[in-house]
Structure of P-loop containing nucleoside triphosphate hydrolase protein:
Amino acid sequence: MLYGTRASGKSTRVMRTISELENESFLCNYTSFQHISDGEAFWNSFGRNLSIYRGSSKHLGSCTNINSADDFVTYFSIDGWEKAGNDPNDHIVLFFDEFDRIYEMDDNLRSNFLSTLRSIRNDIESYVIQAIVVVGTFSILHLDSNKKKISPFNIKDAIRNPNFDMEIVQGLFQEFENDNQIQIEQSVIDDIFEQTNGHAGLVCLCGRAIEDSVFRKLDQRCLSHSIWECYKVKSLMDDILEYQTFRNLVNSLKSPEAKVALDFFRNYFLVDFGQEVKVTTEIDSAEYLASEGVLVPCGEAGVFKLSSPLVRWLILQRVIPVIFPSCPRIDIPFFKNSTELDTLLTLIPATKSFDKEIISFASVRSYKIAKVRVNGELNLPVPRESVYDAELCRVLRNWLCPSKFQITGQWHLVYNRGSKRHHRYSDIVIDTPYHQKIVLELLATASKDDLTEHFQRSLEYAKLLSADETWIVHFTREDRYVEQPLWPSNSQLKTNLYVVHFYHDYLFTRINLIAGYWSHRNNKMTTYKDSIEI
């Protein structure tokens, strides 16, 4: 069994394996279950597809005569193979791709087919078939029939299709640079690897996007990090959805049947990429999301993690807001006699619209350990940034996008090679229909050092995107925080850096907020305070 997420290069790996086996004189056949009919036509359709593969059509052309399970068993038995005029010493390996489609079959037909494969496995010496390899998503690890809960495949021989490592991605883009006579900054390649987690389909999609959409923006033959970041914010998600595999993923998750799995996702996987989660009570939902390519199983049984940052944001931006449509029921706030968005008066009702249960339970489901005092104690669990950015993205998309705003979430990993520190942070970019760009960088119960670092980095990122406003949005559980908040320097505030601190209680029933920004009219910092019961 070869399993992996969709578009992860499984079929390509199979074709390479077939080539190597054929060099060793094995007779191989490749059949995709995507093209096989269900119902009464199954066996004939199955035989016809076996006969088509060019590598074995000379020997398997008469598979078109297969009309039943008995025909299939007889055809590949040593006696049947020899009676047909073939060499009984032939060694045949069958590869069945898209095998997870078997779950869409009639229950009795699926049971009959798996039982047939099981009978061959149990008496393999009587057949010219040496092996049957099935290829599909994570769901094929749990093949069974209605009558017997025993898979015909040996789970010990299940092989997970690996993602590309950094060396492979680096090599692919080196070839891409040579073929197209361009230079790609190393930071772009690093970011593509981090965002895709080496998923073959997503890596190749990024390469295609660069070729189709980014080349024309290059004044010189160099793809800089700034050009790549601007493209990501504006167009990458739309281009991903042009790829049928990911469009199918989004459509599948938006179906009513996926609602339970999406509840599970919001409850347990609003976490940072790379964090492993032990699933104990809703394993069916985890396995469903793994079969769809949202999660990937880890080494330990019942442990899963997000498949990639890009897929995470795809779900948060294109699925979650549709299924969970709550948002403020008030007009979008603009400044008086202006088309400029009043960002603070947008953030306040948006935060009030967060799902209370998601926020309150995050302290036990999707948490980090606070470095500051919460309820008088250190090292208590508090919601992590990824919980707040998921909720803020959901609410803003539901509220603003119908009025032609564009809301884009980003996930970043800054790696300081000198200190070997990893900095993960998220931001949300708001593009208004009036050409205003606002960057929101989110933090959760941050220490003074974390805030100080983000004050400067957010300005650098905003400059990269040519943002009109930059906001540090700090959600905190720190005791009495709004009474002694940390602010940027005056010079930072003067460059259109705005800060808002939202303190909330454990149950998310009360919010105390304080915002600070530079008043150019009064030439000093101005603050705004409010206390809200939810």
Observations:
- Residues 415 and 421 are 6 Å apart (CA to CA).
- The two ends are 51 Å apart (CA to CA).
- The longest strand covers residues 406-416.
- The chain has three domains: 2-160, 166-242, 325-533.
